[in-house]
Amino acid sequence: MMVSNGQRALWTFLLYALAAPFFAGLGVVIFVALARATGLNSFVPDNVGGLGEAALATFVWSAVPSVLTGIILAAVVWRTGALSWMAAAAVAIIAFAGAALLLPLELHDARPYLAFLAGVVSIVVRQVLIQADIVPD
Fold first, then answer.
1. How far is 70 from 119, CA to CA, in rounded Å?
2. pLDDT of 40-57, one tens digit each?
3. Torsion over CA of 42, 53, 60 and 116, rounded to 10 degrees?
4. Fewer Cβ within 10 Å of end Cβ, the chain: N or C?
5. HEC string of 75-131?
């Protein structure tokens, strides 16, 4: 079955807008849980509450940079039909930085780590797109 670039772009946008916040929340929960379980509480900012609160706050806040990333990468996929991991990570980090400037984010010291997490989440979503045969490898 032949898949058009328009269909690829639509699925790219949808997965970035809907799945990326979930993966971001999951990543924060894993990091906070591992840091607390291993006694490395100094890596977790003081104003981070419980795991559920951190996951929900991450999911809600990351919706804006995820949608921005989805829009830009959907345009890339629509134009080229493919998506490199470098473009996925770079766009996500830039979208996170833009959202961090515009939206309230209380974790000022954690911004570089959260930007890195945004890049990793973007690469994970790209891999989901590849595994689903939406974009070629």
1. 13
2. 777 676 667 788 888 888
3. 20
4. N
5. HHHHHHCCCCHHHHHHHHHHHHHHHHHHCCCCCHHHHHHHHHHHHHHHHHHHHHHHH
